[in-house]
Amino acid sequence: MTPEVAVVIPTYQRRDLLLQVLAALAAQTLARERFEVVVVCDGSDDGSAEAAQAVVANGGSLAGLPLRVLQQPNSGAATARNHGAATASADLLLFLDDDMIAGPELLATHLKHHAEHQGAIVIGNLPVHPDSPHSYLTVGLGRWVARRHGLFSRPGAAVPADEILTGQMSMSRSTFQRLGGFDVRFTAGGTFGGEDIELGWRATHLGIPVIYAPDAVSEQVYRKTFPALCRNIRHAGAADTLMVATHPDVRPHLLLGQVSDLGMAQRLALRFTLRAPNFCELLFRPLLRVLDRAASRGRDGQIYEHLHSIARAHLYGLGMVDGAAATARSRRST
Fold first, then answer.
1. pLDDT single digits (tens) 146-155
2. Among the three residues 165, 190, 223, which one is the final residue of a domain in this structure?
3. Which residue range is the domain that position 48 belongs to?
4. 193 and 270: one domain?
5. Distance between CA atoms of 2 and 263, rounded to whole angstroms?
6. Does residue 334 lie within any of the structural domains?
7. What is the pLDDT of residue 124?
8. Is residue 184 part of a domain?
9. What whole-number distance in Å separates Cα of residue 262 and Cα of residue 42?
C-alpha cells in the first residue's frame, strides 16, 4: 500500500529532540500504513541517524514506525527537504521541523484539508511546547504565535508570503514539483532562513492558494541558545538581501522594506550598523552578553524583550551587510 502522506524532517545535531519528534509521529491517530517518515540528517555527527533507526528497531512504542533515514553532507535545510521529498513515495508532502512535536491528529488533519483544498499549501498552528525553557525568548515567541493564530483564524484571512513557514507546511507532490522545490541558495552550507518565504512568494505569484489550518497543531520545543539565535538572525538578514536581489518586488514584505515601521531605537540600531558594521559589532557585544545571560537564567520581562528587539535590528543589519557583500562577489565572478 502506497502511503498517502510523507513527513519530511531535515535535522542537524538534535538527536534527543528528534527522538521526541518521532515518538509523537508514532502516536498519530492515522494508521501507520497510511504515512511514511523521511528524516534527512544534514551533516549531523551526533548519532542522530543511528539513534532514530535504533528506536524504531528495538521493539518499543516506536517499533514499526515507517521510517527512512537519509544522510547528506551539511548542505542546508532546503537541500535536505528537496532530498527527502525526492525519496518519499507519498503524494502529499508534510514538511516538519526537527523541533516540532506533532499533535496526535496532525497527519489526519492535513489530509482532511487537502481533500477540501486540492492543490493548496496548508500551514498550521505552532504553539510553544511546555518543555521549552522559560525566558523572555519563549515568552515573546508565544506572544507572536498567539497573534499569528488569531489573525489567520479569521474567516477569509489571507496568509502573506512571509508567513508561509516550513515549521509545519504541506503540499501535494505535483504542487511541489510545479514550484521546483526549495531554492537551495538560501540555506547553502547550513545557513538559516529565507527558503520557505521564497517558495511562498513564488507560490502566491503562481496563484497557489495558501490555507491556514488552526486545527493542525505541532508544538515547538524551543531550546535554541541565544548565540545560535543571533547567528540565525544574521543569516536571515543575508537571506532577505538575496531575496530582494532575486525578487525585487518582495522588498515591502520584508524587514528591510519596513524600516519605517520599527521603533526609533531599532531604526537607529539598524541604520548605524549598516553604516559602520565593524564598529557596531564591538559596540553591541556587551548588550549581547547581557541578553545571553538573561536567557540562560530564565529571565523575562519587557525590558529584556525591548533590548532584544534592538539587538535583533543590529544583527539583521550585519546580515544585510553580509548579503550585500556576497551578492557583489557573485556578480564579480560572473
1. 999 999 999 8
2. 223
3. 5-223
4. no
5. 52
6. no
7. 98
8. yes
9. 35
CATH number at residue 128: 3.90.550.10
Cβ–Cβ under 8 Å, residues 71 and 49:
yes
Residue 212 forms part of a structural domain? yes
User: Which of 38, 244, 257, 250 has its CA nearest to residue 161?
Assistant: 250
Collect all residues with Cβ–Cβ distance below 8 Å to 16 and sequence separation of at least 6: none
Q: What is the mean pLDDT of residues 139-143?
A: 97
Work out the burial of residue 173: count CB atoms within 10 Å of its CB; fewer than 13 is exposed, 13-18 middle, 19 or more buried.
middle
> Residue 116: what residue type?
E
At 14, give phi and psi (nearest 5°).
-135, 50
CB 42 within 8 A of CB 11: yes
The total number of structural domains that make up the chain? 2
* Contact of 194 with 187, CB cutoff 8 Å: yes
**Chain Cα centroid distance, residue 240:** 14
Out of 207, 223, 239, pick the residue that ends a domain: 223
Q: Which amino acid is at 151?
A: L
Q: Counting every residue, how long is the chain? A: 334
Q: Could you give the 3-state DSSP secondary structure of residue 6?
A: strand
- Same-domain check for residues 294 and 263: yes
Q: Which residue stretches of the chain are H helix?
A: 15-26, 48-57, 77-87, 106-116, 136-152, 173-179, 195-205, 226-246, 264-275, 277-296, 302-333
- A 10 A CB-CB count for 259 gives 14
Q: What pLDDT, on the 0 to 100 scale, is given for residue 236?
A: 97
290 within some domain: yes
| Cα–Cα dist 24/261, whole Å | 40
Residues 196 and 248 reside in one and the same domain: no
